[in-house]
Amino acid sequence: MKLLLVEDNAELAHWIVNLLRAENFTVDCVVDGEAADSVLLTQSYDLVLLDMRLPRLSGKDVLSRLRRRRNNVPVLMLTAHGSIDDKVACFGAGADDYVVKPFDSRELVARIKALIRRQTGEKSGWLTCGDLQYVCDTREFRHKDAPLTLRRREHSILEALMLRQGRAVPKHALLERICSLSDEPSVDAIDIYIHRLRKHLAESSVQITTLRGLGYILRAKEPVPA
């Protein structure tokens, strides 16, 4: 999952970025409204964390522009005041939720996961493909009731494949999932991560198949004829 954080307080932004990366999110961070508006024109995100009061362009104006472009990415507003006026302004501009500063890390992560779960439409709490499970609430992979330990980028790629299991996911879409604005993207890197994931899944009943010219697909292995 890839998130955009728009926050001009450098210390708070650093803390949030580290918190979310520890939760296996890919995170981009910009410090003003104009930069956020520019990035949102070219990049795709699973969720935006948007400060209400920003330099150059307010969070409310960034959100209004986003919604006028019919971009329905979930937006979690960060506001310093929990007043009724602020809440009304957030929702009136098209926000999906908000948190009031200072907030607890657990609350922030829980609200982010709830918004993403709502966006994907997954209500059962988990997904399965063969004997591989994906727990939506914790974003944890499990195989035979044991956690599947993955590095952050491996996790992001497998997550993208799991959420679209049975359908081909292009290389460029996977690359976008794992690369932040500060990274040097390399399509060849996807092959390396897919190779590692295949090793992790070697004992499972699922496989990642390469579809030439289309990308990769995650699906259950065909049963071996008796």
Automatic annotation (TrEMBL):
UniProt key word Phosphoprotein: yes
SUPFAM superfamilies, sorted: CheY-like
Modified residues (4-aspartylphosphate): D51
The keyword Electron transport is annotated on this UniProt entry: no
Alphabetized Gene3D superfamilies for the sequence: 3.40.50.2300, 6.10.250.690, Winged helix-like DNA-binding domain superfamily/Winged helix DNA-binding domain
Domain Response regulatory, chain residue ranges per copy: 2-116
Keyword terms of this UniProt record: DNA-binding, Phosphoprotein, Transcription, Transcription regulation
Pfam families xref list: Response_reg (PF00072), Trans_reg_C (PF00486)
DNA-binding region in chain numbering: 124-220
CDD domains membership: trans_reg_C
Ranges where the OmpR/PhoB-type domain occurs: 124-220
Protein name from the UniProt record: Transcriptional regulatory protein tctD
Organism of derivation: Paraburkholderia hiiakae
Lineage: Bacteria, Pseudomonadati, Pseudomonadota, Betaproteobacteria, Burkholderiales
